[in-house]
Amino acid sequence: MNILITGAAGYIGGRLVEYLCEQDWVYRVVGTDVNEPRQSHPKYVFDRRDIRESMDDIFEREKIDAVVHTAYILPPIHNKQLMEDINKGGTKNILAAVSKAEVKHILYTSSTTAYGFYPDNDVPLTEESPLRGNDDFTYAKNKKEIEKILQTFIAEHPEITVTILRPCFVVGPGFANPLANQLRKKIVMLPANARPFQFVHEDDVVEIMAMMLKKRIGGIYNVAGEGTMTFTEMIRMLGNFRLPIPWSILYPLNHLAWTLRLHFFTEFPSPAMRLLVTPWIASSDKLIQETGYRFKYDTRQAFEDFARSVKEEK
Fold this sequence. Notes:
This protein has 314 residues and is an alpha/beta fold. It contains eleven helices and eleven strands.
């Protein structure tokens, strides 16, 4: 199988490149990204390219059988228009290329953020829960909108297998995003009313993606570890100290810091903080029942692996 991975220099894309290159059922892995890759392997071919650029030559040259679409702006940026153009425009571009090249399978990494952060969220969230990604948080809004784009694509191309995976927050030794950076601070300012949180280990996510590709399993699946952790437990595990701040104070304070681009204080806009204070727990029962996959890590074990890697750096 020849597999194309968009966003191949990113967190999950990069881990998937490494994993697939070691599989005997994979002949070639082709990666695209605007950033240079960290990986090097005889099976791996990298093409530096913006996800919005034409991919036709890659599909023709490499005879692509399956596509994994992970290219996405994850850390929030102030230019919302650019973020949306890359996220949604890039998705439309890769779907057009897939259709034109008659690729058999496309796997898209969505997110449980597509469900949105609301007090009346289903507990737990299942694949049947409504997608209400908050419109004032571009990351979640785009995840919701891209899934709508994919549903149209599925209806128009029943001959193509489409897999949509919705991981919760992915953690592990490679965990490096605004939340990870916040938790690694010696004094961690968080909402006083923060709710228990859920993680999935990067190894489980990558193995599930590979399983879907190998067996060509289509459909929509949540990907989330069992159990939850409190932020107090996480921060204590990292050897840091939590400073709980009332929501009514932290929200406007964070908003001011984000507006002024005070990134030493915050790396995300205030609407993103809703994921910390609303029930946002997903069930992976459908995935387990339909594929037989057994997670290697629960939420606590996944975070422990991240904490262990942080301590080894010191």
